[in-house]
């Protein structure tokens, strides 16, 4: 049996406090690495918080890898794991994107996914490419938060060979909160979804009740919500594409 151990970083970032959030991510990644994890997944825009542009604007966003990203890649290499990192970026033609980067054990940036459904985000352009990333022999699709609203992106990832969908998100309950979209995408595609959500609050959105989840065939196999940052670890059977763990192993960051 081929098994991988995965950590979801259910974080409490401070909107617009880039240095604090970067330090929080580094600390959480190092703690997760102590559990011998193969993948570490952060929420959407873990580096900045969701509504950062209202507080600090966008002039700070750079092409990636910027100075901190290069440093973070060396951290990832030193702890021998793979990381999915939610971080804004500027493209070569100076357009801004809400992106998730994949960094492998060698500290190399091996792929990115730019959020497609950005109508409510305001500050960024919509991505156009929907591609899978080969991560140590597993084809992974990335579906960022509201990209789960319709079946288009999930079905495109399936058509492109995805075996697992990773869903970094900043999606709290409420009027426009999640309402079965992730579950439906798992039914549509037959693929498992690893939803890494967050806690806390931004300018106008609260995430205290937001859930990080493992979903298969429309069912929530594991779920977690908390009012503080937590590392959620679980084991996954790659051959059977099924959950091994009966619950998350939870470590809170104090």
TrEMBL record:
Keywords: Hydrolase
Superkingdom in the source lineage: Bacteria
Keyword Hydrolase included in the entry's annotation: yes
PANTHER family: CARBON-NITROGEN FAMILY, PUTATIVE (AFU_ORTHOLOGUE AFUA_5G02350)-RELATED, NITRILASE C965.09-RELATED
Ranges of residues in domain CN hydrolase: 4-238
CDD domains cross-referenced by the UniProt entry: nitrilase (cd07197)
Molecular functions per Gene Ontology: hydrolase activity, acting on carbon-nitrogen (but not peptide) bonds, in linear amides
Organism annotation: Bacillus benzoevorans
Keyword check for ATP-binding: no
Record's protein name: Putative amidohydrolase
Entry-linked Pfam families: CN_hydrolase
